[in-house]
C-alpha cells in the first residue's frame, strides 16, 4: 500500500479544525495466534470548529465499514492511508472498522514466532505515524486525547497497554479473553501501545509504584538473572526524575516489555518496549550494563519530555530525543552506580555526532520539516548525540540550578499539552535571567562543528561555514610535564564569544581544551600538547580527561591530522594501565576499530597483534576480563593469544567466547562446519542463528557471504538488535576488500527496496554500509547516490555521513 505522508500544512489545518475528545479502540488479536490478521474498531469522538468542513482520518488498513454520526461513509474512497470524511458537524462520532495482514514487516506492528518453542508474540510501535496501520486515528502529535482500549486476545496470552487493566474476562464463544483498560491521560497517537503474547511477567512493588517486567518464555532465565538490576535502575530513575522535575510520574503502573525483533526501544506511556537484545544472553559486561541502563533512563525520561509534554510538530523532534539522551546520562551519573557516565558518553557516543556533523550530511539540529517522512531523515546522531551535547552546553551556560528550575516550570506549565521550542527556551530564560535567543539560533539553526585551538594566550574558534562562532562555555586544564608524572597546575572556565578570546593560563606544556567536555566542538591541540597527551594519556587522573584525549585523537583522524598508527599506539598505551570500568571497553573498542578499519592493510596485522598483546595484561583483572577476552578473540594473531583464549573458553560457563573465537578463526580461513554445528546445537539462545551468521559473515568465501546477504536483504531474517550492527561490521572485513567489492555496489541497489519499519530499516542501512571495506569506486558511487531522490531521506542522510567517514579512512591510510 502506497501511503501519503502528512505535511505540516495539512497537520496545522486539521489541528485548527478539530479537537479530539477521546478514542475508544476495540482490538481483536485472535487472528494472530495462527495467522496474520489484526482487526480494530476505532471510535473517535471529536468536535469541529467549522461545521460543514471536511477532512480525512488516517487509516492504512483494509477498511470494512465506517460511519460518521450514524451515517455510512463511502469506504471505497479510502486510498493512500486516508479515508475522506463528509461534512462534519460541530460534535462528531466516527466509527471505523478495519483490518490488516501486514503484521510481519514491523511497520507499526510485528508478529514474531519464537524459533525455539513456536510461541507467538506481538508488539506495536507507532512512532511517527504508524498508529494508522493498526487503527483509524488523526495521526499527528498535537491532537492529543485519552485512549481507551478493549483487547480481545487468545486466552493463553497476556496483554500490556499504557496502564493496568480494569478487567480481564473470558470472551463468549471463543478461546479468548477480553482485556479492558481505563482511559489513558491525554496522549499523542504515537505513544499508546498494545502488546500481546504468552509473556513471562514479574511484578514488584516499590516506592508507591507497581513495576512490571515482561519477556518471552525462552528468555525467562535471562530476565530473572538481571531482574534485581532492572528493578534498581527503574526505582532510581523514577525517584531521580520525579524529584528533579518537580513532577512525579503520575500513575502507579510502569511496565517494561522486552520483545523480539525490535531495533531499539519505544517510550510508550507507562509501558516501554525494548528489543530483547537488551536481555544479554551472556552475563553482560560493564559496558553492556551501562548501555542497558541508558536505555532504561532514556525511555523513562520520555515519560516527561515527549509524553507528558509533546512537541507540536516534528521539526522539534530533536527536543524529544536530545533531552531524553541528556537526561539519561545526567540521571545515571547522579542516581546510579554509573557515576562516570559522562566519560563513557564522550568515549562511546560523541564520536558518531562529530562524524555526521563534519560530513556533507550535516544539518541543523532544528530545521523546517515539511512532512513526516522528512522528519524521519533526522533520526540520527545529530538529533540524539549532538542535541544532548548542546543541552549539556546549555547547562554549563546558565548553570544546573537554573536549568532544573526551567524544566520544573516547563513541566508544570505544559503538562499533557503541546509546545514549541520557544516555550522551553522561555522557561530557561526566566529561570536564568539571560536572553537566550542568540544562543538558541547559533546552536540550533547552524550546522557544522566548530574547531577550537589555543594560539598562545588566545582561544581560536574556526567555523565550518564561515559564520560567526557559537558561544562556548568551556574549561581548560593545564599540566606540568617536566617530571616523570603529570602535575595538574590549573583548571579554569572560559566563555568564548568570538573568533579569538584572550585567556590567562598557568605555565604548562600540556593544555587540555574542553576539559570536562562541556561543549560540542572539535579540538586541535598545539603540537606539544598533542605529543604529551598521546604519550601520557595513562597519567591523567580524571577518567573524563582520559576520555577527552581518546576522543580528541578520534577527531584528529576525521580532520586528517593524525595517523591511525599513532592513535592506535596511544590507545594501546592507555589500556596498559586503565582501571575505570567506564573506559576499559570504550578504549578497547576504539583501539580495535582504528587498528582494524582505519589502518592501512600493510599495518593492520601488526597493530592488531600489538593490541592483542596489550589485552593479555587485562585478562586477569576482574573488571576487565570479559571485555578483554572479547577483544582478544577479535584480534588474536599468535599461538600465545589462542592459548589464553582456549584456556578461558574451557573455564567459561557460556558459549559466547567460543562463538567469538570461531568467528575469528573463520575470518583467518579456518572455518569448521562441524564446530559451528556443535555450537548451534548446544546454544539455548533463541537467536543463536545470528551467531552462526556471524561466523559465515567473517569467512572469506563468496557462498558464505551470499547466505548472510540473503538473510539481510531477501529473507529479512536478521533479528533487529544491537547485534545487527556487529554482524554488519563482521561481514565487511577490510582485509577481504577484493572479495567484497561486488557486494559494496549491491548494497546501494538494495537501499531502493528495503522493507520494515523505521527502526529496523535504519539498523540495516547503518549495519551494512561497507565502512572500511569500500574502495574509491564504491565511494564515488555512494556519494552520487546521496543525490538520488528515489532513495528515502534517511538512507541518503546515512549514506552521506558514512561516505564522509569512509573517505577519511581512505585518506588516513595514506598518512
UniProtKB/TrEMBL annotation:
<dbReference type="GO" id="GO:0042277">
    <property type="term" value="F:peptide binding"/>
</dbReference>
<dbReference type="InterPro" id="IPR024571">
    <property type="entry name" value="ERAP1-like_C_dom"/>
</dbReference>
<dbReference type="InterPro" id="IPR050344">
    <property type="entry name" value="Peptidase_M1_aminopeptidases"/>
</dbReference>
<dbReference type="GO" id="GO:0043171">
    <property type="term" value="P:peptide catabolic process"/>
</dbReference>
<keyword id="KW-0031">Aminopeptidase</keyword>
<dbReference type="GO" id="GO:0005615">
    <property type="term" value="C:extracellular space"/>
</dbReference>
<dbReference type="GO" id="GO:0070006">
    <property type="term" value="F:metalloaminopeptidase activity"/>
</dbReference>
<dbReference type="InterPro" id="IPR027268">
    <property type="entry name" value="Peptidase_M4/M1_CTD_sf"/>
</dbReference>
<keyword id="KW-0378">Hydrolase</keyword>
<protein>
    <recommendedName>
        <fullName>Aminopeptidase N</fullName>
        <ecNumber>3.4.11.2</ecNumber>
    </recommendedName>
</protein>
<keyword id="KW-0482">Metalloprotease</keyword>
<dbReference type="GO" id="GO:0016020">
    <property type="term" value="C:membrane"/>
</dbReference>
<dbReference type="Pfam" id="PF17900">
    <property type="entry name" value="Peptidase_M1_N"/>
</dbReference>
<dbReference type="InterPro" id="IPR045357">
    <property type="entry name" value="Aminopeptidase_N-like_N"/>
</dbReference>
<keyword id="KW-0645">Protease</keyword>
<comment type="similarity">
    <text>Belongs to the peptidase M1 family.</text>
</comment>
<dbReference type="GO" id="GO:0008270">
    <property type="term" value="F:zinc ion binding"/>
</dbReference>
<feature type="domain" description="Peptidase M1 membrane alanine aminopeptidase">
    <location>
        <begin position="234"/>
        <end position="443"/>
    </location>
</feature>
<dbReference type="GO" id="GO:0016285">
    <property type="term" value="F:alanyl aminopeptidase activity"/>
</dbReference>
<dbReference type="InterPro" id="IPR012778">
    <property type="entry name" value="Pept_M1_aminopeptidase"/>
</dbReference>
<keyword id="KW-0479">Metal-binding</keyword>
<dbReference type="Pfam" id="PF01433">
    <property type="entry name" value="Peptidase_M1"/>
</dbReference>
<dbReference type="Pfam" id="PF11838">
    <property type="entry name" value="ERAP1_C"/>
</dbReference>
<dbReference type="InterPro" id="IPR042097">
    <property type="entry name" value="Aminopeptidase_N-like_N_sf"/>
</dbReference>
<dbReference type="GO" id="GO:0005737">
    <property type="term" value="C:cytoplasm"/>
</dbReference>
<feature type="domain" description="Aminopeptidase N-like N-terminal">
    <location>
        <begin position="117"/>
        <end position="191"/>
    </location>
</feature>
<dbReference type="InterPro" id="IPR001930">
    <property type="entry name" value="Peptidase_M1"/>
</dbReference>
<dbReference type="InterPro" id="IPR014782">
    <property type="entry name" value="Peptidase_M1_dom"/>
</dbReference>
<dbReference type="GO" id="GO:0006508">
    <property type="term" value="P:proteolysis"/>
</dbReference>
<keyword id="KW-0862">Zinc</keyword>
<feature type="domain" description="ERAP1-like C-terminal">
    <location>
        <begin position="512"/>
        <end position="796"/>
    </location>
</feature>
